[in-house]
## 1
Amino acid sequence: MAAPPPPTADARFDVGSGAVCFGTLSDIRRGAEASAQAPLDPRPRLAGTVVEHPLAFHVAAANGTWNVFALRHLATSSVAGWFAAHADVDAVPELVRILRVSGSPYEYEHGDAFNSAETRRQRVLVINRYDWGTDPDGAPGADNGLGLVDRALASGYVRDWARRKPGQRGASSHGVWLCVPDAEYMFARFGLDDDHGQARSFLFFTDRTDFFRTGFPGQPGPLRTYETEVQRLRRGLGEGRDYAGVDELRKLYELSPRELQDLGPSWRPEQPPPESERLGPYDAAEHVFREQHLELLRLYRPSPFLGQASAEQQEPEPAIAVFVDALKGATYELLNELAMSFVERFVLPHRMHSAPSTAGPALFPHHDDADHLDSHCIDHFNAPHARPIPGLDLPSVSARIRAFLARRAGDVPVSLDQDSLTGIARVVAFLMTETLELADKLAFGRDDSDGGEACCIVPSHVRMAVYHDADLLAVLRYSAVFWAGRQRQDNAG
């Protein structure tokens, strides 16, 4: 198949001074008047309640002719963005490269949202919505437009453009005014040369730009190919992507001083317990739940109350998410580690109780508080027929719990009777069903509207479900594998 013909530029302009100014009229004026050479890797900083990059609004740029292309929405042909590139640059691969490194922050897998060591390595300069200056009407880029102009002639262009309406500015020999209608926030990206010495391309887009529905002149299809969450999961598994969620979890509690400052003094992320208090990992032979048990817990949903049932008859329940085949073992292991750490932390110290009448209040001391998790736990402990889980082999689970406790009992033997052990098995099953129901809401595919594929749960969903639920985290937080993963724990040992 023959290659498509070179794209036809919508405009051209020439650079002869080795630099360009960019931005709103006030930005370009600042860039023209600045004396110092602007760095090509400004790092983000906190400015009040937002994060911005300190910009001088001028950059070193390749001399010669720059081609300018309108990026259009494929369905409506309306302008969705602009791309300018030096004539020696292959425009389409350059644009695709920039989008991979730092694309629209409103799209999935958009790369880095701020300038970083990685964006510098990949030769992209990031400019975001809060980086622009304010024009006389009081708003950054209120006309949804910005200019790109040879720095040596920038002051004259500002004077000329200021006398014209934005739609009349257009392109001339040494500069171009770019507009995207019906947008609120503006973003830009410069593509740099291999030596990071000068810019060779420029992308302008807005919060309304959808690169999955935006095309380049003369090119078939959109600039990015949309994938559902499940399709992205399949691709990620093939690429060896990590879905454990350990690194994702760490990012939630290991915050930088600036991030903590942004959150304010009244909020602090939940921290892991000291390593001396973490429990596990456990041998797989000790797991209290078999695979078939965990599949039953995944499928279980408690029957709604009568009033709730009548209200919910109007809308069918979404299909329950499945465990991903390639990660089932890791998911089963994580759930067992959570369950067993709960048993060791909260049940083992009360193994001397011989009857439910004393074991229940000891295990769940806050059971009289209707808002406390203990009140729900003691209901499951004491009420064997209230909300049974169909098919769950409670005698097998309770026997495994007893054996697990006995191996750790030391000089104080396990006195819990069978009713107490069965009640404990129901409680642990309840905690796992709550965890899995929350993980189900996070499953890959829940945000896709077509519903044509089964939603998928991976270990990271289990970790996020527990971490973001204060009640569950309070009783499941002592699992070492929850915080660090099995492999890391084994390596540490």
## 2
Amino acid sequence: MPCSPLNIGDQFPNFEAETSVGKIDFYDWMNDSWAILFSHPADFTPVCTTELARVAALIPEFLKRGVKPIALSCDTVESHKGWIEDIKSFGTCVITHLSHLSEILRVIDSLQLTQTKSVATPADWQQGGKCMVLPTVKGEDVPNLFPKGIETIEVPSGKGYLRTTPQP
């Protein structure tokens, strides 16, 4: 059977694994939360060490969003345990260039918002910013779905598809 790539928002297949904290069944470990999987080619690699140190520092932000981070590497559990000590040690260093993980948190916020509301988030959207009303929302549904109202942006085509609303 051909293997197809996974995209953001796809359901990751279940698996069992020996981890640095014991054996887990991925779906049981996730329970009712979301999860984000950080995959790395090997333990003791420089960029991966900095990334996982940043992930560890952001665990409270992930948990606040109901998201459990997990890292996957093809090395042994013993190797992982040794690498974790390096990650912890590096995590005490000041890192100023790893802002892409903040972008991951922003994407999680967007995915969770758009999963439950009839909105999309525009380019450069930030938490609390204006959202785009989905084109599938009918005019008669607007007052119920968007009590703060909507604004239709005038465009040369005259089509009223660019509608914004305060974040629901």
## 3
Amino acid sequence: MPHQAKLELLSFGNLLCTDFDPLNIATTLQVKTIDKLKQEVSAEGHRIINEFKNAPCRNLEEIHLERYIQSHQREAINLMDTTGKHMESLEKELIEPDTYHQAISLYQCIITTLENMLNHIEKEQSKYFDLSIFVPYTYRIESAELLNRNLNVLKAKLKSKSIDTALQQTILDYITHHCARESCSYQQLNYAKLMMDNMLNLLSENKDIDWTEKAMVNLIYLNFNTESFHDYCKHYIASKVGTELTFAAQVEKFSWYAKEIKNIYLKPNVACEKDNLPISESILTYISLELVHITTIQSPPFEKQPAVDLTERADKLDFKLPFKLTVAQLALFIELFIRLRFISIEKGKMMTTLDFIAQNATTIGTDSISTLSLNKSRKPDTRTIDWMIETLQAMIKVLEEMTLE
């Protein structure tokens, strides 16, 4: 199938190797006029684009159709490079000036035709498949130039809002990295431009707010899923929570961040990649684990306990969630345990119960916890299973009510 997929572009490939080769182009231009040749090139380009439009209607398996489109994409990019090399190797001295300019004009017509094919593939065919692996050279150059033009503007705006230096550097390093790379995917370049436009619009507002926090939340919404940004979020939240004087105030601050991040789920996720979980889930994981940590080292009454220093832990704690619960569920369970105090739990039982829940629940809803799975956890020396079933059912009821709000 991949070999057959290239047959649509075989005519261009053959011409570039024969009639349109720099050694033969002068003879070709003697046989046919430049206008006739350019007309034939354009007509062939339109024919191939029509084949692309009809491709999804064919009785092909999805994987074959994807290979068909991707093979054309790769071949068109290869032919663009070949045409560019022909233009560079065309010897001015060996042909008449008029013939030279006609040859250059023909090569430019071929490149334009191939660019039209690639634009069609990227705009129309990407709704069927992920075609972001290969990026046309011209698109890459234009995108990099656009990012470079806006980079100084972004630097000035970040500085004018007094955004934390570490966050500024994280943003600018990402943009610079994508300006310099020659092997960026279409999706990566698109994301870099999206991020640039979004940040410029955000920083154009005139408000007296914590701009560092605003920029951080905005990047979470954009799913700015980089390792450096993960680390920054951990340290930022830990430092802000660490300024509180009491444990209760820390819980309040953590809950505020969790609420803000959960609200991001209500917005369209404009930049979430298929194989990459939203960074909002990772940060909720961090918040949830820290809530568990500070709760286990405290004892009631919470309001009188001193705050816990979390800044050193931020260096060591990763985002991996060691439970089977989703992050959002775990955060809700913790909120029920700690903040709402809907259920009172004896000292020392909280982590045991939380771990039990994590092992037996994967989705919100009563169907996710079966009597059979709970009874399998029964041990001869354990008498709390019936109490735990009642507790879980009560928690699930509250969770469902919270989810519907």
